[in-house]
Structure formats: structure tokens, C-alpha cells
Amino acid sequence: MRTLVSRLIHSTPPISRLNATAVRNLCTEPNKVDEPFKVEEAETVNVPPPPTEKLLVLGGNGFVGSHVCREALNHGLSVASLSRSGKSSLHDSWATDVIWYKGNLFSTDSLKEALNGVTAVISCVGGFGSNSYMYKIDGTANINAIRAASDQGVKRFVYISAADFGVVNYLLQGYYEGKRAAETELLTRFPYGGVILRPGFIHGTRTAGSMKIPLGVIGSPLEMVLQHAKPLTQIPLIGPLLTPPVNVIAVAKVAVRAATEPVFPPGILDVYGIQRYSQQHK
Ligand SMILES: NC(=O)c1ccc[n+]([C@@H]2O[C@H](COP(=O)([O-])OP(=O)(O)OC[C@H]3O[C@@H](n4cnc5c(N)ncnc54)[C@H](OP(=O)(O)O)[C@@H]3O)[C@@H](O)[C@H]2O)c1
What we know:
This protein is an alpha/beta fold. Helix content is 41%, strand content 16%. It has a seven-stranded parallel sheet with strand order 3-2-1-4-5-6-11, sandwiched between helices. A two-stranded parallel ribbon has the order 7-10. Strands 8-9 form a two-stranded antiparallel sheet. Helix 9 (248-260) packs across helix 10 (271-279). The model is unreliable at 1-34 (pLDDT under 50).
């Protein structure tokens, strides 16, 4: 008898277990939920969409051009560059993501090949030398590129031109006449998608061979001081010399925005406009 009683006691579920069972049973009533539904989340795989914009940077291995390439890659664009020496001496890791064309703006064939499938162009080609050379490289070479891009149906074209520098304009006549001739061609051929950036001195880190030249050491403090002296630039002849320098990263940022944003206003952007657009968030 004692054994029977003991067996009954041990086969009875303990109170706590009874309670738990009762609660569970209560909660199985319709309209009552004892635990929130656990929905198995589908695994999200972060595959970036394939780039739809293909940007061609003319002079992508130069000082401004290399910063433009890097900025465009950061935006997920497909980036190609055309210059006489191709990839040249750039050893930075981002440079492997650029398609490098060796070519010359004076050769229609090399331009045609590089422009294949391109939606926007940023030209950073320019240079100094004799007046006739400067007119050729800043003017004629860029006019060739603008015409070729327009003929191939490119939507947007950004040209890195230069601010007027008063008396300096007379000393660098070929340079400024070339720049203004290329600007006129751009506004004619790309009335809705043509943007001209007119920076003064551009500072930042310029690569020359294996050397990095920190132009910002002079450029940054000058930019800080001169950006507040805009009225002084109105003084005839010498005033434009007080145009503030601008950082190469700001120029690159605005160039890429101008090349890719359909609502970016066409026309000429001076150094103050470049500073303003570079500080805006999209
Ligand atoms: N740096 C400044 O302070 C400043 C200020 C105002 C305006 N800008 C303007 O900004 C632009 C870029 O200046 P930057 O300082 O970057 O000049 P940069 O370093 O000398 O670059 C010029 C680029 O043009 C390429 N190039 C020259 N002739 C070419 C040709 N016939 N065909 C194809 N590519 C050619 C060069 O590459 P290859 O030699 O390999 O061909 C190089 O990539 C220029 O138009 C300049 O006038 C510059």
C-alpha cells in the first residue's frame, strides 16, 4: 500500500508543471497569442546594381583627373580614362578599377573607341607652354573631344576651365583664348548637359612620379582667407588675383555631380559656385 501511494505521488506532475500546461492550454484559445510570431527573415544579399552610368575622364592620370576618377568610383560609376600615357605612374589601389585608354584628343579614332557606351565626359585636359601650344591643348583638343562626344550621343559633358586672372590673362593669352573657345563649343553642343567649372588655383596633393607634392600647405590657408574677400576681386586688373584657391577634392566632387545629376544646371560655375556645390549634400 505504501509503495502504491508513493508511486501515485511521484507520477503526479508538480504544481509548476501543471500551471505551465494550463497557461499553454489557455493561450491556445482562438484570438490569443502566447508568443509573438517569429517570421523567418529572408537573408538579404547586398549586391550593388550594375553601374548604368559610364564616365570617361579625359586626362584621368593628371592632378585633377585622378581625383575625379577616385570620386566617381566612390559613387559606384564605371570609370574610364583617356590620356597619351594611359595609366602612367599611378600606383594607388583605386587605379586598378579604371579602364585606361592610351590615346590623344587629336586622334578621332582613339576618341571614338574610348567614347563607346559612355554617358558622360569630364575633360581635365589642359596645359601650359607657348601661346600656340596652349591654344591647341586647352582649346582645339577639347573642341575635338566635345564634338566627338556630341556626335556619339553622350548626355553630359563637364569641362575644367579656368577663372580669369586679370593681368595674367594677357601673359597667358593662348591659354585663356583656348579655354574660352572650348567653352563656347561646349555651350553650343551641350546646351542642356554642358557644365563649365572655372576654378582659380587648385590645391591638394599632386603626384609627380613617386613624389607627393602637398599644394594644400599654401592653398588651404589662402582659400580660408580669400573666400571672404570676394568684393576685392572686382578691382580692375589686379582684383581677380585675389580669387580664392579651391581644393582639388571639391573640384572633383562638383565635376562628378555635374556629370551625373540630370538636374544639375548647365552653364558656367565660378570658384564660389564650386565651393557652394561641394559643400551641399545630395
Ligand atoms: N592645377 C590647377 O591649379 C588648375 C587651375 C585652374 C584650371 N586648371 C585646369 O584643370 C585641368 C586639369 O589640370 P591639371 O593640373 O590636372 O593638369 P595635369 O596634371 O597636367 O593633367 C593634364 C592631363 O591631360 C592629359 N593630356 C594632355 N594632353 C593630352 C592629349 N593631347 N590627349 C589626351 N590627354 C592629354 C595628360 O596626360 P598625358 O600627359 O598622359 O597625355 C594629363 O592627364 C586643365 O585644363 C587646367 O587648365 C588647373
